[in-house]
Every structure is written in structure tokens, then in C-alpha cells.
Amino acid sequence: MLLLMQAAPSESATLASYPAEVRQLLFHYVLQLADTSLILGHRLSEWCGHGPILEQDLAMANIALDLLGETRSLYQYAAELEGKGRTEDDLAYLRAAVEYRNPLLVEQPNGDFAHTIVRQFLFDNFHYPFLQQLKSSPDERLAGIAEKAVKEAAYHLKWSSEWIIRLGDGTPESRQRVEKAIASLWRYATELTTPTATEKALQEAGIIPDYAALQPAMAAHVAHVLQEATLPTPAASTFALAGGKEGRHSEHLGYILTELQYVQRAYPGLTW
Amino acid sequence: MNQSEWPLWEVFIRSKQGLDHKHVGSLHAADATMAIQNARDVYTRRLEGVSIWVVESTHIHASNPDDAEAFFDPAADKVYRHPTFYDVPDSIKHM
Q: Closest Cα of chain A to B22: distance in Å?
């Protein structure tokens, strides 16, 4: 109780210190981050009970839960930024697909294990360096969320990198599968580091990291992992797919939300 | 890759307060790196530990249960092997 009372003034000061338009931008941006980790976490949770081996089944469920934890903190913050009395659950369960702002990459189906690994690797390779920078955001809440999530993201990146190497430098079958996954998913990576108008405005305001500054480290890690995996570096994608961050999604998101939101839609206000 | 090709590993975890690594179970993994990562995911999810050892199960040689009588029973009546006949000075702590 004492902690809450101490924390309350500084938080509201941060929130109150934003002009209305920055607050609106930040609301949309925090939603984007929350949607991204929710959808990817949900995808990973679909593996639960279907993993190739027990140990990896657990590893994917662990990562899904890490992402869900991050999601909750973000939705809670988004709800406060919006200030219209919506809760984290309202934001997760009662918005339509066009209102979701996750990049297309994270809603792509699991496919085989190699497909899931490549999707995860592309995301982790952005997520980890991004959170490292976000830790020093002047926005206290985002900095705090990043501080906690970055340790988890460091492990996720280690895990997915390790698997890219194993699959690439593994058996002919694992190599063929990971090559196929790279060929189909690489085009979604560009969206992660291409700022939308919202992101540009927040980058200029110094609230979130400049993605261009992340790219050298991201490219270096990809090059290192692919080399270890004896996989060729994919040509820079000329056919990049984007739009998710602005609500233009692939057909897959609708199916995810149908499953994710079913209970709240069928029984509004239901709680455990 | 067939799971049955992956060797079995024994996992030892040292808890925060503990001084020694304790055996906690076993798992399958292709090599030591994967075994440590798997052990992290399977056996340290609830803050169980701060350090992990893994060893391939084939490298553990165990005593034969059939030898138990010959191995262990003779120690049962050798009370003089226990240092219980010494008075420990009061100034010695943590004995």
C-alpha cells in the first residue's frame, strides 16, 4: 500500500506532463507494442502440447508467457494513457482486427518448427536491441517495462539464434525446412524497423529509439548467425510486406482474434 | 531428426542458498549446449537455481544394487568410525 502511494504521484506526473497529442500518439504506439507481443505470444502458445519434444514445448510456452507478461504491462499503460476507463482486457478482447497494430510478421502461422523459429528469430533480433534502447526512454513506464522484458528477450534471442544454427547446419531435411521458412518470412522483417508516422513523431520527440540506429547491430547478428548456420544471406527483400502497424493485416489475424476473443464476445464481462 | 537419437542428460542445479549442485532430473538433448538450455527451460522456471550442470547419462557409472549388502551393510556396526567420542570446544561453531 505504501509503495502504491509513493509511486502514484510520479506516474501521474509523467502522464500529466504530456500534451494531449503526444499522449494520443503514445497511446497508439503502446497499443502497437502490446498487440505485437500478444499476437506472437498467442502464436507460440498454439504449440503448447504439440512441440517436437517435451523440452522445446516448454521452451515455447515459457517464451509465450514472457511475452504475455510484457503485453499486460503495456495494455495497462495504454489504458491509462487513453484515460477513457477501458481496461487491459477491453483492449485485448474487444478490438477488431483493423484496430490491431502488430506488424504482419508476428501473425504469420506457426507452420513447421523451422517456420516458427525463423519468425521468432526475426522478431527477437529486433526486440532485444530495441528494448535495450527503450530502457533509457525518458518515459518512466516504458523504460521500466523494457528493463524487465530485456532480460527475457536476451534469452529468446539466444534460443532462436541457437536453433537457426542447429537447423541450418543440421540434417539435409532441417536445412531444407529452414531455407524454405527464410524464403517465405524474410520479407516481413523490414516492417519492424520501418517507422510509421506515429513512430517517427515519437522518435523525433526522443521518447522511443531511432530504429536506424539499431540496424547495424541487427544486421551483424543476422550475418553471424547465418554464417554459423552455413546458410546463405537472403537478398535484401525487394518485395517487403508491411501495413500491420497501421491496421492492414493478413487474413490470419482475424482467425487468431476469433479464437482469442471468443469467450469475451460470447459472454461479455465474464471473469475467472 | 528422431528424438530417440538424442542422448539422455542428467541435470544438477545449485539453488540460491545451496552450496552444492543437486540432481534434479534428466532430459533429452543433442549436445551439452542444448542440454543446458533445455535444463533452464524445464528445471529453473520457478526460481529453483542459479547454476546448472549437465552430464550425459552414459558417463555416470553407478554401483550395482546387487552389491548393496557387501558394499554398505558392513559399515552399520562400526560406531568407532564416527567422531562422536570427542568433546567439541564451545568456541567452535558450525560443526
A: 20
